User: Fold these one by one.
Assistant:
Number 1:
Amino acid sequence: MATIKDIAKHAGVSQATVSRVLNNDKTLSVSHETRERIFSIAEQMQYKPVRVQRLKKESQLSNKQIALLITASDEDELLDPYIKQVRDGVEKVCGELGLVLSPIIRGSHIQNVSLQEIEGLIVVGTIDIEDIRHYYDPNNNIVLINNLLPHFCCDTVHLDFRQSMTDVLTHLLQLNHTSIGFIGGSEYVYKLKDPSNTTNKLKDPRSAYFESILKEKNLFNPAYVHVGEWSTSGGYEMMLKLLSQPDKPTACFVGSDPMAIGALRALSESGIKVPDDMAIIGFDDIEVSAYVNPPLTTVKVFTEQLGRSAVQLLLDRFEGRTVPLHVTVGTELVIRQSCGYKS
């Protein structure tokens, strides 16, 4: 049976170097060519073949550099923790796999960054693929997270908004709510060349499915729909507009938890009891949602799984897959006191 000594002799290096390479010691300063030669000799000599194959794959991954491009600014992340949670998910998985993740690239800064050495790109937010390829086009190792445009030429990861809205509305209908409001935000196609351009507006899928599901049941009321800024203050202001109407809904879905927290504040100031006078459901399940008064019923988004799926798709690309894959990540309705319970 081959030993480390045998591998070292054939590779022309010390036994210590072979041992550290075969244990993927990342503190070892040795060339990529030397690492590959040691793994190749170990394979030829049948030295612990299963373990060597695994370590070789890990070593090759550690040399892959990927980048994370985010449309959101630092300020956006402060306003909506969901964005940071997606980013954290990608970073966590890359750390587990030993992948080299370059510093985060904000969309507004991409003109100052070179992507020529990057072997894979994960994009969070809605950007047209041609706009992305203007800055990054050495290969098709691109994964889009939560991109609302149809992209069939590259990999995508997105939430199952249809199912999440079905769960929300089914629950409210089972609680005998037939007049249901909607508070949400607008989506835009982010232009990398001109970040200030917000002319290309998209309909948020939560709003689209909310409308289509209620229309099927003849329960949709456009007067109950308010769309504005994705922020706590936006939720506050839109709830005040909803309450200013003579005919008010008995329940309201709010497109993000930060917006829902603002909406709860508006309801409290207006003397509207939750859930007795109006039931509220949010979206994201950020940490603070369980601690507001009353605790917020919300749609839980598995942000780490979004990041994990995106990284796995990149790994598949590195191994030679060329067929685009589209991954849908499910959600879960977390029922708390803000909307009551089914009897």
Note: The mean pLDDT is 83.
Number 2:
Amino acid sequence: MKEMIVYASETCPMRAACRALEGKWKIPMIYVLNENGTLRYNELKRALGITNMMLSNTLKELEEEGLVIRVQYNEIPPRVEYHLSQLSRQLIPVLDAFCQWGEVLLAQEQRACRAGDDCRDPE
């Protein structure tokens, strides 16, 4: 009999991955940095439509987890740029597949709208 997978276990790889990406903004931030390359703080803010507090907290967490690299240049005015680490680049094929799945969902929604069904599920 196959051994049961226990998500609650500290050694569960899915739990470790989910913990690293938990929160509303981490996956979108990795996606935006992958699509646009190195970005400055305000560029990230515009691209995500995120508040300063959420952007700062999310960047700090991603940097601590080794998923985003922060580069500060000693200039006046100060310039700080962010880009993906090698560790987060390993996630890109998964995000690409997730994006393709999103395309399927959007196409399904568009077909439902053209057919006269509700365009959005009310629940």
Note: Residues 92-114 form the longest helix (23 residues).
Number 3:
Amino acid sequence: MSRSLRSGALAAGVAVAVITLAACGGEDTASSGGGGGGTSAVKVGLITKTETNPFFVKMKEGAASAAKANGAELMTAAGKFDGDNAGQITAIENMVAAGVKGILITPSDSKAIVPALEKARSAGVMVIALDSPTEPQSATDALFATDNFKAGELIGQYAKAAMAGKPAKIATLDLAPGVAVGKLRHDGFLKGFGIAEGDPAVVCSQDTQGDQSKGQTAMENCLQKAPDINVVYTINEPAALGAHTALKARGRDKDVLVVSVDGGCTGVKAMRSGQIAATSQQYPLKMAEDGVKAVVTYAKGGSKASGYTDTGVTLITDKPVTGVESKDVAFGLQNCWG
């Protein structure tokens, strides 16, 4: 599913930790909040899956903005690639050593990251998962995220209604094994479409890691296996655009329904040109803003955040269907990211 930037300075003692974060491969910088200064400001860590995905770029913007508004110092890090669990573990260790009061993380591997998070929490650091839950979810103090199951369910309901009773031949272009967000979206899509795992209507399933080129390859493989595919579910919009390229090369881009999740600006614009029929839009900036505020509250003597906070999801399409609530592309463009 397939998603992270940069600012000012920490005190000299923390700079060593920041340099170490760069060595672990992801994001390498710390930003100073406007009202903080030196070591008195609350330190907040943000660790994303990657630093290039527009989703995580927007998430970092939200964290930086909230840090500045709340007089906090922001440290950031990211994996070298989506799935870089080792890089995220190193980032956690360095941030704990630097004295952060809380860590916001989009876990690359929802299970393998758990021991490192438990160690951080035992050191008194509040941990909030953003976008993707850990397994178990109780491995973090709180989760601020899109309801990814609901996001998948919405586009599944949309696809079912849009097919208007026509027999479906479905390809699912998924994320990767072991990533909770991918499974939640996939399972939600199936429920929304009214089918179960293993239903013969799903004629092909391929992993894409949320990457456009891999989405294209996956779609090519599916078309070779089942040339009569007429519905394509994709984990995110880059995978959807890759699928569209493969469909267009086969002359199938006009008669295959493509639905997706994310709501990035590129994906929303792709609906205008007919490349994607509908997407479920989520709001990464809000996740990060709320996370930073929660850490600052905790650091100043407040209670720890707990449980799940739904940061919202909206179905976006310019081809609405009866029975599925949606907003148009104009709304999507006003609220997109990237």
Note: Residues 232 and 258 are 5 Å apart (CA to CA).
Number 4:
Amino acid sequence: MGSRRPKSNYGTLGPIPVSERYFNERRYTNKGDRNSLKINDVNFRGVSLDHFEPQEPFILGKGGHSMVQCYKHIKSDTIMALKRRRFGQLNELDKKTKVTRDIEHLRKLRGHSNIITLYGYFEMCGEAFICMEKMATCFAKILQNCVKKDILIPTKVLATLCYSISSALVFLKEKKVIHRDVKPANMLLGTEGQIKLSDFDGSGYLYNSYCFSDPTITHCYAAPERIDCDDKKNEAKFDCTADVWSLGVSTLELATKKHPFASKDMKAQFDLMKMVLSQEPPKLPSTFPGYDQNLADFIAQCLKKNPEERMYPKVKNGRFYIMKHKFISMKEILSEKRVADWYNNQIKN
């Protein structure tokens, strides 16, 4: 018999069978074409680092256990972002979950215009190299530049961003995948203005619409139900609306140039988690210079504390379908070209 989760502010989740609780972590395999790339329907076999040459800027990003570098695949003349992750010291289960999660989910999600494109991957010298399309920047860096230049991200750019990420979340739900780490650093902008969701090494599978494990968490973007759980017993249970909450926090941060849970009095991560659980959800202030009623309502609908009251990335009876919100209607969003023009004229230079 599975252990029973204690009650929380979000209801009694009930017993979670072990087979379900670890469903995510046991699904990952090494199936698929290793040491190969697929670029514009052309396959390249036996790929190694010798088939690439470094490009500038070389370092595109760094994470806790990985680094993203810029290379050109010589045979196809394609500039790529190579995510390098060392797995030599990991046990077999960790290797499957921490290294191949990104690969498997990107394969499963291949073809959507708002999800980063996977070309393939290869392994050598105890490292996995995940080869993806290179984008111009991420919205975390755009936010930094906006703070430096003292400018706001236009409401219509935010509408385009929210439309793109919401569209990606709808596709994830359709494929029974949950991202679990939606934040500005994982929202990428391409040179032509396309917006894509990236970094799936923290993602997981949905089982009967729920996720039963939570190995990685960025607390300042995490939904209350992810924080209010017994992590030691690994009994987290939440659905895809956790990603919707993270989108709401990210949108509010990008709109105001300040994280909604930031505080000078905050000395530890525990204080941040306490704020998320105890305080009313943050809102876009009506006195804010960039205030827009539709933007404010979109954020408010994302940041409902009760996950059952949040917008849902699927048409479902009794739930507010996220793609129907006025803020991300076709009248509000910009074309990719206009987003690229804004970035090149206002942010890049």
Note: Confidence is low (pLDDT under 50) at residues 1-23, 230-234.
